[in-house]
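Quick illustration, no need to memorize.
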Amino acid sequence: MSRPIVPPAAPFHASGAKSNSKTSKTNKSGKGASSAAAMKNKHQFRRTPRRSRLEIMSSQTKLIFRITAFALIMGQLLSKTYFDYLLPHGRPEKLSERPSPLPIDRNSDLLRFRHGRTQRIYERVEENVKPKLHGPETVVINPKTGDLYVMTANARLLQLSDLEIDSNDATRVTAKATDLHSLGAGRPLGGAFTADGKTLYVADAVLGLTRLHNPTDPKAKVELVVDTIATKNTNGTLVHERLWYVDDVCIGPKSGNVYFTDATDIAPERFGHKQKAHWDTLFASKLDLVRGRPMGRVLEYNPTTDTTRVLVGDLNFANGIAVDKDEQYLIVSQTFGPRVSKYYLKGDKAGTLETILGPNQLTGYPDGADCAWEGNRKCYAVLPSAFSPIHALYSKLPDPMDRVLRVILLLLPRWLAPRVQKYGGIVEFDPMTKVHRYIQDPTGKDIAMLTGVTIYNNKLYLGSLENDYIGVYTLEASEL
């Protein structure tokens, strides 16, 4: 076995020892020289006059000033370089108001199954058939035929028929779901039929306002009606703005005009992979809440002249919309106001917005809305979530601190975004007197995450952005 070659040790010489001795003497003499120099420097330091306290403070002030100036310059450079990347939807706005929500009455639970007035409608699925009913945001009813339609999360138009009550569970109803059409590549949210029942208008969060003539006709084609709006900028130049998040729609019974909402300028993003990919409208709404910039608006489309105009803007996430039977006013949900508002179409108050229910009268965030055209003509708005604890937290903080917290929230990844508070709520109100009451499941145990409401006959049909069923609440005769 080979071994590493090790060089032989250097032989010992007496002369080397003498050399080391000389070196040692040299080191001793050097040490003495350095000690003398140190003493000399020490005496020189003592003779140097000490700086006054004022001079020291002045020096520290200059240092702090330089550090601050450097930080400001770097901050400005970094904000210009990375601002659009880190916060693509802009910085959090100063809060115009800090809502204090109405506490939930846990003893009020009319929406629970135990009262015998709430049911769920599920799709009747045959063996080896994939279910189609998922995320029916709004139930749309044909005013001429009474047929029920829903628009799903993957943009399919389904007709529900042959409803059957489960013999073992009266709260469970099944229905045959007929797949009629694809509504395009977007995410349909709200829908409404024209008075003759021949045309369905759809509020699509991705595409804009669309329509479908004769929905039961297999050859019917989806038409894009409005996806931009002409407005004037600060210089008076006419520009075309995109509609980023069309949310809900209703149709005037007198004029036939189409009223719809554009919730925010934050567009929903496509999220997920392959078959699980979907338009994440919920996350876009959370970003809008945290940012706090009122960019929502209500628009009117005239099908006769094929023109569109903005009725009112600067709304906090303009969401659900409904019109009264005489087309005197609109009811609009401002989800992150949070408030339910009344916009006057006619009369002395035409063009003005009035608050019907303010933040202190709401237990959560209002979403879809509808008004009865018969009986007591009351209106309804659903609340998919109770008030968010993180929203309550930063609403109580002073201005600079709350915006710092909101910047952090805007930087969080999607999976860390604040969750929806489990709750099922409907607020019934008189649009004239503003008297209101709650129909709710305070825990969301039986029914929750309600985002759409449609009143037909004596029933409230309750849609959801995420559920795989439709809720139904039956109103008593005394409530009509």
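The two ends are 104 Å apart (CA to CA).
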